Amino acid sequence: MARAQGHHGLGGFAVRIFGGLVALLGLPLVVGGAWLIALGGSFYYLLAGLGLIASGVMLARIKALGAWIYLALFGLTTIWALWEVGLNGWALVPRLFAPAVILFGVILCLPVLLPGRGKRFAAVGGAAFAVVVVAFGFVVAQANRAMAPNAIDGMTLANASTETGGADWPAFGGTRGAQRYSTLTQINRENVSELERAWTFRTGDLPQDKWGAETTPLKIGDTVYLCSARNVLFALDARTGEQRWRYDPKVSDDWIPYTAACRGVAYYETDSATARKAAAGGVPAPVPERAPATPTPAPTGAPCAARIIEGTLDGRLIAVDAGTGRPCADFGVNGAVDIKEGMGEVIPGMVSMTSAPTIVRGVVVTGHQVLDGQYREAPSGVIKGFDAVTGELRWAWDMTRPDITGLPPQGETYTRGTPNMWTTATGDDALGLVYLPMGNSAADYYSSQRSAPENQYATSLVALDVTTGRPAWSFQTVHMDVWDYDLGSQATLIDYPSAGGTTPAILLPSKQGDLYILDRRTGRPLTKVEERPVAQGGVEPAQRSPTQPFSLFNTLAKPVLTERDMWGMSPIDQMVCRIGFRQAAYDGPYTPPTADRRWIQYPGYNGGSDWGGVAIDPRRGWIIANYNDMPNFNRLVPRAEADAKGWFPRGDPRAVANGSGAEGAGDPQTGVPYAIDVNAGWRMGFTGMLCKQPPYGGIRAIDIRTGQTVWDRPLGTARKNGPFGIPSVLPVDIGTPNNGGSAVTAGGLVFIAAATDDLIRAIDIETGETVWQDVLPAGGQANPIIYEQNGRQYLVIMAGGHHFMETPKGDYLIAYALPERR
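Above: the chain sequence. Below: its structure as tokens.
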């Protein structure tokens, strides 16, 4: 009688329902598992689905056999999981987490399935389950810890030509050499835990969508200078954060390209200001037409002797007085010049300056962003040099028309569709060279219509003679680029150690992850670069280069993907991603684009190093490089199909207003036979999780002398990430996507935000361990700066968020410092 009541009471009813759910979960695994086998994939999912159905049916019939079937299935699943991925914690999550939840349900069913003995079995099983959960949590927590630091003898890099930051932060990269290093030591590994917020400033500039300020401020003298998302300029008291002046260039929202971003501004002093300061003992003897290494504000009464220069989203170069914020009357027309002159028709949003200008020997060198994926005949990527005092055009470099050295002849334009430079250049005043990390030709994913000069200079570091605007040398990182691997990182000047002393060098990070060290006088690689065969074929087989250059110095790229690298929150998610992997074209790095099916690009266009660049510790001779580690899941879409989908370019009356989705997700590429559809990061449509297993981003220390990795660790916790966009709040280092860079100090610390967990952190440079962190009010997709004012060291970061990174938007500039001692 008691047994019958167990079968038909509430307990029995619950077991029947549970068994039915288990059987239902097995159905998609059977169907998908059979499909995966047909594609040449794993047999596990079909077998697991059959086991779930058998177990579920028996449980629904209140048969203890259902529990034993599932226990056997769980045991075999554990063995299979360990065989596939070992003790890789994050890789075990989709293989064991959901099955463990079902196991817990089976344990709860035991009192009904085994009357009399079931409670005892359930208690023992529950205890064993708790032990397994604790052990599993430990494995996951340990999975992404920093690798043990390698024992590497330190070395010191000479800095005669690159100088390092002290009390000021006078350039986007900290100094003209872009090392992002500060000699300050007041904040160090022993006291960093005491950091507190010293002040917060809000710009008031919060775009409704497409937010992403990405701002790196400057600090000169006693003033901090910054630009907001839509180019409003501010000067703040470096000690208190109080506003000194504000200048709004009135940029219309129509001109916001993919993101409303202003990464930084430039500072320049005229010769007269430098001479006056030298006479007063403020600086050494003046250097004609060269911004001083450690500038301070110009004396009052000399309008625009010291000036802030910024590029705007609507393509203007603006100069304002550093002391007052008033436009410089001697610069262009009312303090502005239009870089779009000579480009012909420019649809609003197609040409914008989002990065800080670079000034070399009194010449402001400007590149600009050309909105990706719209037209093959997009505006030109022409590079221009303007006089830093008058705004006069000194020269122009149109790569396909070297005969045009200024504005094009009347009735003509600069060559349309050529590669542009959207990021920040680096200058060498001593050599008179400016180093341009070039992007790709318009219509990034199709190359047949490109000219020979485009093929020569696209995705290359190009050194221009700043006096003439003519190329001195170039070094290409990708041949015939159809992967949007444009160079996004500012290159960094270093003195590379060699047998005979040091060689003036430039360190070039890339989106595909390779780091190159070149002689900055000639472009000759100082470390080995190997041309390796790569996959051929795709929609333009004759266009694919048979080889690509691989750096043998160090690469941030990970090994090629396999089916085992697919991820999810459950076996079903993982199976779906495995099916996608097996269906896609993937032949390792540089898999050619295809139209008949999707192809996997790994790393994706946001992989490797992006605009945040790298930092250098010259005392140790180490590179600090944060990076992304995500694939893209792409497909070329034939023109007729793209038109049917309504994919029309910006400015076309049929075009839908650009949203804030991923770049490349439905870009028309008008003028070539194919549009492009990019699934950035390769997200699953149901849960929104990524198909590749974590980590998705990391940070690494590299010895410059040997190229050896000192330590490598994931960057970013899981606290703001989870399925369906629901934060998991887990403080576990999963390694998230990241945009922005780091700053290194002589106090032995690396400061970085960048990740999608909205944290700014200090990392011990010796071990790679986080030693301090704080929660930001918005995403920290920006580069921090370090400076000193009135004897107090400050850490400053812009918390503006980013729509692409899916972090909260904000307008906060936050300064940290140690408590003031009274």
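Residues 1-6, 158-162, 278-300 have pLDDT under 50 and may be disordered.
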